[in-house]
């Protein structure tokens, strides 16, 4: 349903589904990533009028997750490039 691309790395298309409407991509060595591309694979469109928010998650000083909204994708905007340099740990997608 979704893909994730980091320059110099293989495309990730096997997002971990953590809830009916939530998917996670792991970004190892995130400290060395400047931008990430999130895109729809074209296999399953969103319902009409719907889209998906893209979040970046990282742990705070207590180890609790912090969620940073990066943007969104929709059927009309099926891909987007997000700057993540300076942020922290895992990419989280919620539709």
TrEMBL record:
Keyword Glycoprotein part of the UniProt annotation: no
Localization of this protein: Cytoplasm; Cytoplasm, Cytosol; Nucleus
Cytoplasm recorded as keyword: yes
GO cellular component: cytosol; nucleus
InterPro entries per record: Hikeshi-like_N, OPI10
Alphabetical GO biological process terms: cellular response to heat; protein import into nucleus
Keywords: Cytoplasm, Nucleus, Protein transport, Transport
UniProt family annotation: Belongs to the OPI10 family.
Role played: Acts as a specific nuclear import carrier for HSP70 proteins following heat-shock stress: acts by mediating the nucleoporin-dependent translocation of ATP-bound HSP70 proteins into the nucleus. HSP70 proteins import is required to protect cells from heat shock damages. Does not translocate ADP-bound HSP70 proteins into the nucleus.
Protein known as: Protein Hikeshi
């Amino acid at each position: 349903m979704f893909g994730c691309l980091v320059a110099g790395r293989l495309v990730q298309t096997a997002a971990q589904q953590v809830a009916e409407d939530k998917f996670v991509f792991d970004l190892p060595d995130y400290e060395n990533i400047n931008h990430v591309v999130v895109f729809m694979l074209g296999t399953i469109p969103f319902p009409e009028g719907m889209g998906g928010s893209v979040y970046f998650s990282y742990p705070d000083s207590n180890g609790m997750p912090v969620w940073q909204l990066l943007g969104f994708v929709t059927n009309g905007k099926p891909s987007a490039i997000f700057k993540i340099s300076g942020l922290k740990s895992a990419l989280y997608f919620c539709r």
